[in-house]
Amino acid sequence: MPHLNESERTVATTSPTEQAAVTFGNADEAELRASIRRALPANTFEPRRWRYVWFVVLQAVLWSGFAALLWLELPWWAQALIGVGLGHTLGAQGFLAHEALHGALGGPRWLQNAVGWLGFGPFLVPPEFWRRWHNQAHHGHTNDGDKDPDNFGTLRRYQKNPKVGAFLKLAPGSGSWLSALFLTYSFVFHAQMVLWLQSKHRREFEGFSRRTAIAQSLACAALWLGLAALSGWTAWATVLLPLAVANTLVQSYILTNHFLRPMAVSNNPLDNAMSVRVPAPLDALHFHFSHHVEHHLFPGMPSHRAPRVRAWLLANEPARYVCPPHWLAVALLYETPRVYRDARTLVDLGAPGRVVDLVRLQAALQPAEREAEQPVSPCVPAVP
Fold it and tell me: What CA–CA distance (Å, rounded) separates 286 from 265?
């Protein structure tokens, strides 16, 4: 586990009032996107329908795995291996469905919704709900205080409603033993919190049928319960283990996308988001979900083109582009508190003296090993 040094952990140079006044984002995101578009081949940003074929492959893996668990008499260790494989496949399918619902695969809306059900239905998330929650609320207010539904919010939220602070014990960085389990269930849990509670009040959900989405979510839960009943005692391998692995996989990326970055006034992904580095084979299996800054810059870009954008950012924005190893991002997630005291500072409500300056933390997120990387040419070769 890495440890933050004193300069990364504490804020000693400015007062909270002065820090809150600092502008972290630059209003240059439009020019940034334009510069990248000019530099890269035009087909970088074009939808790719052939990638729908991956859903056929992923579904074949899932149905084969469930059939083996239901109908074959397997030892417990074989059931566990298959359960882990099913969970990994569910997570990977969710990554691809996320891409499809942004329009990156093209095709009619009904087809996007169909694969959206395949990818997000197992997490009890209807595709139209996901569009409102993720595409509109999150992308529209990324890391913007209490407006972004995908963070733990600001100190003001907890001062206004102290009872909400009880949920912080579950979160990574709280120091509670409960936080060790957070990744295993939190995507499903958070989705239900947004659906049942936040969607009541957020402007992005105006005109959205919550009743329909809740009924659809409950129907997905009923399918899992039906599978558990059919599985009997092997439900641990057919239901519990796959869901835990799938949640852990997707949350290990989602929680590190923004939680270690400042709130930025411009919604510039270079300032309020980060990518992570994973081994190339895993990156391919996870449909390049590690390229998150790249995704926020171009949500409709097919993910297999995202490495082109990463190469451009490494060559042209090395000081602002944050892309640590995945393991380091997860480790630091568990070492830092979750509530924003101000735009650049995280604070632990249970120990107000425990604060982390996120601007200084960037040094830990850009480790020395980056210096050993081969320089990237600004001339990015075309990828077929």
Answer: 30
Residues, the chain: 384
Helix (H, G, I), strand (E, B) or coil at 344: coil
Cβ contact 321:270 at 8 Å: yes
SS3 276: coil
Alpha-carbon gap, residue 121 to 143, rounded angstroms: 26
Of 258, 150, 250, 254, nearest in space to 204 by CA = 150
Partner residues linked to 339 by β-bridges? 347
- The label of the residue with tokens 């892309």 reads 323
In this structure, which amino acid lies at residue 304?
H
Count helices and strands (H / E) in the chain.
Answer: 19, 3
pLDDT tens, residue by residue, 142-191 = 998 889 999 999 999 999 988 888 889 999 999 999 999 999 999 999 99
Cβ contact 151:168 at 8 Å: no
Domain ranges of the chain: 6-372
Q: Which tens digit of pLDDT belongs to each residue from 271-320? A: 999 999 999 999 999 999 999 999 999 999 999 999 999 999 999 999 99
Q: Are 8 and 360 in contact (CB under 8 A)?
A: yes
Judge whether 256 and 334 are in contact, CB under 8 Å.
no
Tens-digit pLDDT profile for residues 102-129: 999 999 999 999 999 999 999 999 999 9
26 to 22, 140, 264, 270: CA distances (angstroms): 11, 16, 8, 9
Would you call 355 helix, strand, or coil by DSSP? strand
According to DSSP, residue 12 is labeled -
| Burial per residue of 293-326, b for 16 or more beta-carbon CB atoms within 10 angstroms, e otherwise | bbbbbbbebbbbbbbbbbbbbbbeeeeebbbbbb
Q: At 154, give phi and psi (nearest 5°).
A: -105, 165
Q: What is the distance between the alpha carbons of residues 52 and 47, in angstroms, rounded to a whole number? A: 11
- Residue 48 · residue 106 · CB < 8 Å: yes
